[in-house]
Amino acid sequence: MSKVDKVLFSLLKAYSPTGHEENAQGILVDIAEELGLKVKVDDAGNVLASKGDESNIWLVGHYDTVPGELPVKRSGGMITGRGAVDAKGPLSAMLVAASLSKDPVTVAALVGEEGDSRGARHLLKGKLPPYIIIGEPSNTIGVIIAYRGGAHLEIRCQAGGGHSSSPGVSAVDKLIDSILKVKEIAPGTKYEEPSAAVTIIKGGEAFNVLPRHASATIDLRVSPSIDPADVVEEIRSRLLDRCLVEVKWMIPPTTVRPSDPVPRSLIRSILKLERRPKLLKKYGSSDMNRLYKAVRSIAAYGPGDSRLAHTNEEIISINELELAVKVYKGAIEQLSQLGRCRAIQ
Predict the structure, then answer these.
(1) Which has fewest Cβ within 10 Å: 76, 133, 179, 257?
(2) Cα(65)–Cα(71) distance, rounded to whole angstroms?
(3) CATH code at 3-148+254-344
(4) What are the beta bridge partners of residue 157?
């Protein structure tokens, strides 16, 4: 197996859903050290692996995954496993690219990206470099210049209960009505519209009892032209009596110009490898949403088919991984040259 294969295969063997990143932390540290990188772990559990002195360039990935362990295997030039696409594949390519770089660079493997972004929020407490590349699947030739924002919402409804054979108010019925109102506000039929996905529903106590409590978890997403707080307030104003919405976390949308240094470096790197780059606007969000205001330039890139993220079909080709290593390495070189030019000026 090539170097990047070995890195990814080892990382996939360490199942690390959000909140249980410690399962992979030690292996990640060992891998980075074996690649010749200097490693430290911060208070949040982020693993920082550096090549050379203090760097103006960070490759920021994450080593947590969504829940649901998958068999890890290699067959026919493909590697499967939970996180192969999102986002241990991109992280593996970043680590190898950093080890091959002649210029200073840091790989930051963050925790909590699939949850409340606690790893990224911890980074914001310290000093960040001017240039960051986020490691997310972009179909290997895509450069991500926009992510939608959103919020993690919980709607809770209450009712008086009673025998199910008698007229009465059901918390579940009230919850269903609330969900339908949310769907009216956030239909999500196109990128520019807010979208609302119901991911968890709870309610009911017994077969013959009208539910007194019911709740739904909703993943709200909005385009860069919309403030998620405005959508939340509209939802709040439309809910029935004794129904409320709680915001677990909220993240702003983000968009960057293709001509900015980081997206430009990725585009040029892909072109030099005789591939045709594509500019992408993603329906979801990433740690880029948290970090973009704190740096000079940022964009996201990575190997893997993004349609397979969070599915039970996470699979990535070795060719994609190897191409991504070259793209990251080329982008590092270009950003380093830009930094040297700025220093001379």
Answers:
(1) 76
(2) 14
(3) 3.40.630.10
(4) 214, 243
